[in-house]
């Protein structure tokens, strides 16, 4: 044992054995001892929520129940449109087929239809967008979805692009 270790060891042992007052003790998360990424979260499973894309820059995310989905425009589309000033939301109970308009987005640059990636019946439009259309620019693939639909045939998801394939299409543009 080195001379420095002989000097420091007794001091360190005494310091570590002293009891600290509760006010100076810090709260430690129960997960602090686990290596990063080793804790599994059950709130979102990639197998339960399926997000797919179209070449016309729409996304659709199938919910946990496998029967409902949310439709919106991609980040790329929102950036290309610029500042969104108006969003036309679909009425409830509207029957749509894959490729048919389910709404429209109007910006200072242009207007564009939002096409439904799959067939189904509209449950509701996103009411947030009625009052705050520019929210699409802030969260295009999150809370700024355009329509929620009841999916007629979940097998139609198989013909859509996954995230990697979609990114390839926008890299080519």
What percentage of amino acids are in beta strands? 25-35%
Which series of helices and strands comes N to C? HEEEHEEEEEHHEH
The secondary structure category is alpha+beta
> What CATH architecture of the domain at 50-166 do you see?
Beta Barrel
The total of beta strands comes to: 9
Radius of gyration: 26 Å
Query: What is the average of the pLDDT values?
Result: 81
Instruction: Give the overall silhouette.
Output: globular
CATH superfamily of the domain at 50-166: RNA polymerase II/Efflux pump adaptor protein, barrel-sandwich hybrid domain
Q: Looking at the chains present, what oligomeric state does this protein adopt?
A: single chain
- By DSSP (H or I, 4+ residues per run), the number of helices equals 5
User: CATH topology of the domain at 50-166, which one?
Assistant: OB fold (Dihydrolipoamide Acetyltransferase, E2P)
* Main sheet overview: 6 strands, antiparallel
Distance between the termini: 66 Å
Reading side by side through the largest sheet, how are the strands ordered?
1-2-3-9-8-5
Give an account of the 3D structure:
The chain has helices spanning 3-17, 75-81, 128-131, 135-138, 163-172, and strands spanning 50-53, 58-62, 68-73, 84-88, 95-96, 101-107, 111-115, 120-125, 147-151. It is of the alpha+beta class. The longest helix is centred in the N-terminal third of the chain and has 15 residues, at 3-17. It has a six-stranded antiparallel β-sheet. A three-stranded antiparallel β-sheet has the order 4-6-7. Residues 22-31 and 37-48 have low confidence and may be disordered. It has a domain at 50-166: OB fold (Dihydrolipoamide Acetyltransferase, E2P) (Beta Barrel). The chain is built from five helices and nine strands; from the N terminus they run αβββαβββββααβα.
